[in-house]
Write a structure and sequence with these properties.
Layout: H1 2-12, H2 26-36, H3 38-56, E1 64-76, E2 89-105, H4 109-175, H5 181-216, H6 235-245, H7 247-268, E3 273-284, E4 292-303, H8 311-376, H9 382-416, H10 420-423, H11 428-431
Antiparallel strand pairs: 1-2, 2-3, 3-4
Amino acid sequence: MNLFVKTFALLVSGLIATLPANAEALRDAVRFAVTTNPSVKATEAEMRAAAFELMQLEREYLPSVYLEAEAGYQNVDDPENLSDEDNNTTQPRQKLGLRGELVLIDGFRRANLVYANAARVDGSVFRLLDASETMALNATEAYIDVYRHRALMVVAEENVKKHKEIGERVRELVRGGRLPFSDELTIDDRIRSAELALIRVQRALRDANARYERVIGRPPGGGMTVPRAPVPQSLQALTAEAIEKSYRVQFARTQIDQSKFQAEVVLADRQPRITLNAGVVREINRNGVDSTRTDQTIGLGLRWTLWQGGRKAEENALAEQTSRAFSQQAVAVREVTELAARTWNTFITNVERDRRLQEQLRINRLIVEVYGDEFLAAKRTLLDLLEVERARFNVEFESVGAQAALAFSTYRTLATRSRLAEHFGLAKADLALEPSFL
């Protein structure tokens, strides 16, 4: 693997250039995208909402105070207990009361409710961090895509320039009678083809700029560079770290905790609930009696559901929900394992592909140079020269794409390990709450 890394360092060095004063570094572009993109902001708002909902559970441990008021008319027909003056008489009635309740024992329902919501907050944190990793990777891809098309523009423009230079030599030879007029038509056709290729690259660059502005949130800067990212030593190292650090796997673990604690919340409803109750009520003309009455109470209240149908089915449903959470975690681990393998395969393939293309490009340039000399010496036809020029252009065009793909594949290894945002200087504390912060 050391050979791969050393080869990679040599080959990607061609992508590294000195930044001009107005250049936008890849680090700055990614940081701007992650911290300002509205899709990340939406996930951040979801995380903060979950945190505030967790903080709301403080009320479960505090007394509840209720104010009750009533005003209206009442008619009571009770001749045995009411005087003739009050019986069967419609009178105004008012009621004003203040009642308080404090839960003392609830079978640990409140505690498990807090734990379940804390796991939910952790899950939302990992979702935000995972969204930040995805955004960082998208921003990196958009940046490298603009960089690649700018490089392709240089290659396409140089191809047009080269064909025009050949065209000037051909016209001189046609005027001197050394070449037929058909060769002049042939080179004119190839020049037009080269110009059309340039137009296609220009359109693709404009599309890349548009995508860059959508993802990053501002137009690309004047100068760009793509330094290489560090890569693991082996597939095994990449896979192990990906499973350990992946936000997707950590999110799945929080779902297991949330399912377990939520099940305990449901089961706690079967336990006795004891509350401390206190209150004061003042009533005017209660139950048809023309009088004023004040009641003051304090005491303990008990509520215990001794039997309720469907409890076995309820237990089975809770067990299946927890089983589902475990299965989803296993799915996440398998997906991350596959992602690590595919990312590694792409990386080593791009290393080898770029190396071969660089060798082929060196040979093609030598062939073009030799064919050019032989063409002037009348040892090669114009078509021979144009065909090797076409081959050189195709290889150089593909080589630019291969170098960009190689650079991007190194950043994918970071994203697979949930380390891409961190690589660009975005600490977790800058993006989200700390998991398990309670």
